[in-house]
Design brief:
Largest sheet of chain A: 7 strands, mixed
Bound molecules: iron/sulfur cluster, FE2/S2 (inorganic) cluster
Oligomer: heterodimer
Largest interface: A-B, 21 and 18 residues
Order of helices and strands of chain B: HHHHHEHHEEEH
Largest sheet of chain B: 4 strands, mixed
Structural class of chain A: alpha/beta
Radius of gyration of chain A: 28 Å
Shape of chain B: elongated
Shape of chain A: globular
Chain lengths: 786, 176
């Protein structure tokens, strides 16, 4: 660009853009200026005054030192960050900041990694002249994740600005005045936002620290290793902090294209699940109903024998968060035995689109491009629970880019940005999408003919259609609730017709960390490695369970929690001759249904590759040893392959497996285009629908075992949430004990009232204690007083 | 407008707003809101709090602050910040009269400390307290903007400048 200017900082010529702040230029040049309130992702407050520097313009010195964080650069600027005048100003500020700050670093959890401590060392005096009393501030209980020591707060307001600008939920504030200023919630309550843990990193002192990590270790005892978030499909980059072979805590690793400088609380605190009591630490076999530990060789022999016996009647269900290597070897093993029945789409119930669905579906645009969209239509997605940082990008689009956001969902979402929500039953969701399609002039042919003929667009649909049509760049996203929809095929067909008509990108929000990778690894019945169409597609999850197989291989999942239809799964697995479960943790449903459990390494304990929502391959190393006898999953599969004399199981390292997959994927390009028109669909109908959303902290086996997260709000509540009018119509009141029934499956629960649930629906979350007794996540339901 | 400087709004449905305060208060609030651009409703927070405080007999309960937040589509914490910052808002019940002595620099140099000690001893109240007979609440406040005639005292809505303890006594005696 031509409008660059050159300024001088500490005698060094630096290129800068006019209007940029001095501190930003200095940071880029690696010149350090002390600061507390400045953060590149937050607005400028300039309230700590630590960044004072001396400056002159065109030879004319400024009379006073200026704050580098709030002074824009201009031509002819010369800045001195270490001149006597600058140093004196910095020293003065430091002295004032320390007036009310306790000097008790040895007992502070931030000691050793405190910005205040570091800056005081570098810029402060060596003794304090202050002898008066210091102020003391009472702490607040902010919930299970964040610990407070508010006496230490220096009022930089980073945490407050984070809430207002990034989270979009103002929970913390600066109340009072002068000496009486307090940072807090004023009225004590738990922090509820899914990104709130980031204020731990933002807080420059020990005022806000991690509660689970509190007093566990000192910064200098830890070593840092790169890691990758194992839950949602964003693929957030992490720094794992380790001590003596144990993950002590998790921090974000900056990656502007993916997670910027943030991570979600789920990624930050789920490591606790690694140390839950129910880790599987040795191979276990069930003998006469009792679990007994056995050696690996015996266990693998047994597994091989049973797998061989099952042959083509083997069904493999693998977690969509498993690594690329594990998925690849699992499908090789399954297909090598003559079965094509492998699936990783555990929460899907309608697979009719398989023949024509895209072979390598993805987000449709790079993650960073989401914030540049002008219109976004979310279909069936509780986006803040599914991928918290994707919700943050959508918020940026809405706030910075003034994008219009539309939501079609079976319950109203609490969003942190303006959106038009069309809330209704799953049937209504289809009708709403069809109405938007019709308003866009989509001609109904094939499976779309009927739904479009019946669609009658109202003003809301037309407004959405107009906004989508006018957007220069727009995105339509199908989320987890769309995936679990009984007519997902039709939803896909409609979404793709809308995308085409309004010239939008179509995108899928993958179910978990490696759901995109599953297509590359071939961990789907209709997709072979390299995202190639299988000539003879196998059975998908639902068919595999509806027509029980002789044996099942379950990979890192709990049948009661991770499958769309737990009741059906329990039945099918219960009838199988042999069920092998490879998992990092034991669980009651695995203990009841499996015959052999093989312990595998979890997150951070094994090396692997995950392919995120935008198709980026990211590999990570194992940095702590797995507990007991647990082994990396790919090794277990490799040995099983050898024992079964299958070809292609001679890799010596995870990297070799990864290379093998990547060679097969040379031509694989992500694409969301349908490969033909989707066929027949039946419009589902029900008087009352169950909507089984997966709460934020119930996504997978690891999160479900992280105690601090389980005490937070995102852990969900297994009640039947009903609209007050719906409850009244059913003769129910809040707190009533009820029996909810889906076909044969039933369970007892309580009614709670919520106006976010539409009429005709009961929101009863999945993956909760109790939900294992129920059927499909989204399907007909009946409810009666117990 | 960059979203960093845009105010964070928390919309409250109109039917909820229609149930807040009284029709007169709502009309007065609307008149204040009308002075600002649509997306800056929350600029009216100070006059809104003053109105509501006067209506409520001189103090703001948490519920009232929440109601103001709802009425102006702002996060509740943002209202708490304003209400707890300025001296003229009281978050605890007060007497009918408030005697507010300025103790910022000009007044302090011109004898406000003497006024404060006088009131403390003569009426047996500390700043922030109400007299035993409930006649008035005594407050120590920040600069009243009347430095030219320091020391300044605010009683109700009137300023009294250049005061001696004896003159202040007279004013206090005159309170109903
Ligand atoms: S709590 Fe920490 S981040 Fe928040 S204002 Fe205080 S010092 Fe800054
Ligand atoms: S960093 Fe510049 S004033 Fe705080
Ligand atoms: S200092 Fe008292 S009015 Fe200004």
């Amino acid at each position: 660009m031509t409008d660059k200017i050159t300024i001088e900082i500490d005698g060094r010529a630096c290129e800068a853009t006019p209007g940029e702040m001095i501190i930003a230029v200095a940071d880029r040049e690696g010149i350090s200026i002390p600061r507390f309130c400045y953060h590149k992702k937050l607005s400028i407050a300039a309230n700590c005054r630590m960044c004072l520097v001396e400056m002159e313009q065109n030879g004319r010195p400024f009379p006073k030192p200026v704050p580098a964080c709030a002074t824009p650069v201009c031509a002819g600027l010369k800045v001195q960050t270490r001149s006597p005048k600058a140093l004196e100003a910095q020293k003065g500020t430091m002295e004032f900041l320390l007036i009310n700050h306790p000097l008790d670093c040895p007992i502070c959890d931030q000691g050793g990694e405190c910005e205040l401590q570091d800056v005081a060392m570098g810029y402060g005096r060596d003794v304090s002249r202050y002898v008066e009393r210091k102020r003391v501030v009472m702490d607040q209980d902010l919930g299970s994740l964040i610990a407070t020591d508010m006496t230490r707060c220096i009022h930089c307001t980073r945490c407050v600005r984070f809430g207002a600008e990034i989270a979009g939920l103002r929970e913390l504030g600066a109340t009072g005045r002068g000496e009486q200023v307090r940072i807090g919630t004023f009225v004590e309550h738990t922090m509820a936002h899914e990104l709130s843990g980031n204020i731990i990193d933002l807080c420059p002192v020990g005022a806000l620290t991690s509660k689970p990590y509190r007093f566990q270790a000192r910064a200098w005892e830890l070593t840092q290793a790169p890691g990758l978030a194992p839950h949602d499909a964003l693929g957030s980059n992490l720094n794992l902090h380790l001590r003596r072979g144990r993950v002590m805590r998790v921090h974000p690793r900056e990656n502007e294209a993916i997670n910027e400088t943030w991570i979600s609380d789920r990624d930050r605190f789920s490591y606790e699940g690694l140390y839950s009591e129910d880790r599987l630490t040795a191979p276990l076999v069930k003998k006469d109903g009792v679990w007994e530990a056995i050696g690996w060789s015996e266990a693998l022999q047994l597994a091989a024998t049973r797998l061989k016996a099952a042959g083509a009647s083997l069904g493999t269900l693998i977690s969509p968060a498993a690594t690329l290597e594990e998925m690849f070897l699992a499908q090789k093993l399954t297909r090598g035995l003559g079965s094509n029945d492998i699936d990783s789409r555990l929460r899907q119930q309608d697979f009719r689109a398989d023949a024509n669905a895209p072979l390598l579906p993805w987000l449709g645009v790079p993650i960073a491009a989401v914030e540049r969209q002008q219109a976004i239509l979310l279909v069936g997605s509780d986006i803040r629970a599914e991928v918290p940082l994707l919700a943050h990008r959508i918020r940026k689009a809405a706030m910075e880019n003034e994008a219009r956001v539309f939501v079609i969902n079976p319950y109203a979402l609490e969003l942190t940005f303006p959106a038009d929500q069309l809330v209704g039953t799953p049937t209504a969701n289809l009708q709403d999408l069809a109405a938007i399609a019709k308003a866009l002039g989509v001609k109904g042919t094939g499976s779309l003919k009927d739904p479009l003929a019946h669609a009658s667009p109202d003003a809301g649909h037309r407004a959405a259609a107009d906004a989508l049509l006018q957007a220069g760049s727009g995105l339509i996203l199908l989320g987890a609730l769309a995936t679990a929809h009984p007519d997902y095929a039709l939803l896909q067909a409609l979404a793709s017709a809308v995308a085409k008509a309004a010239k939008l990108n179509l995108g899928f929000i993958p179910a978990a960390a490696n759901a995109v990778g599953a297509h590359l690894a071939g961990a789907l019945p209709q997709v072979l490695p390299g995202a190639q169409a299988a000539e003879v597609p196998g059975a998908a999850t639902r068919a595999m369970l509806a027509e029980p197989r002789r044996a099942y291989l379950l990979w890192q999942l709990e049948p009661g929690h991770d499958l769309c239809d737990p009741a059906l799964a329990t039945q099918a697995l219960g009838r199988a001759e042999f069920v092998i479960a490879c998992a990092s943790h034991r669980s009651p449903d695995l203990e009841a249904l499996a015959h052999l459990m093989l312990p595998i390494a979890a997150f951070a304990e094994t090396a692997g590759t995950l392919v995120n929502v935008e198709g980026t391959w990211q590999s990570f190393r194992g940095v702590v040893p797995p507990p007991g006898e647990a082994r990396p999953g790919w090794k277990v599969l490799r040995v099983l392959g050898n024992l079964l004399d299958l070809p292609g199981f001679d890799q010596d390292s995870q990297a070799e497996v990864a290379t093998e997959v990547s060679n097969l994927c040379a031509d694989a390009r992500p694409s969301n285009a349908l490969r033909g028109t989707l066929k027949a669909s039946s419009a589902p109908a029900a008087d009352l629908w169950r909507i089984g959303n997966v709460p934020l902290y119930r996504l997978d086996l690891l999160v479900r075992r992280a105690p601090a997260l389980q005490r937070a709000r995102g852990a969900g509540c297994f009640n039947a949430h009903l609209h007050p009018e719906q409850a009244a119509a059913l003769g129910l009141a809040a707190g009533d004990e009820v029996i909810v029934r889906q076909g044969e499956a039933s369970v007892r629960t309580q009614v709670s009232l919520s106006a976010t649930v539409p009429l005709g629906c009961a929101r009863i979350p999945a993956a909760m204690a109790g939900s294992e007794h129920l059927g499909v996540q989204i399907g007909p339901l009946s409810i009666a007083k117990a | 407008m960059s979203f960093r400087s845009a105010p964070l709004t928390v919309p409250t449905p109109p039917e909820v707003k229609a149930g807040l305060f009284t029709p007169e208060i709502r009309a007065a609030l609307d008149a204040q809101v009308a002075k600002y651009p649509d997306e800056w409703k929350q600029s009216a927070v100070m006059p809104a709090l003053t109105l509501v405080q006067d209506w409520n007999g001189g103090w703001l309960s948490r519920q009232l602050m929440d109601d103001v937040a709802a009425y102006l589509d702002m996060p509740a914490i943002a209202v708490y910040e304003v209400a707890s910052f300025y001296n003229m808002y009281d978050l605890e019940p007060t007497a009918k009269h408030k005697v507010c002595v300025c103790n910022s620099i000009s007044c302090m140099l011109n004898g406000s400390e003497e006024l404060i000690h006088h009131v403390e001893h003569k009426y047996g109240v500390k700043p922030g307290e109400t007299t035993a007979d409930g006649r008035f609440t005594f407050k120590e406040v920040e600069c009243l903007g009347a430095c030219r005639h320091a020391p300044a005292v605010l009683i109700g809505h009137s300023y009294h400048e250049h005061l001696t303890p004896a003159e202040l006594d007279k004013l206090i005696e005159g309170l109903g």
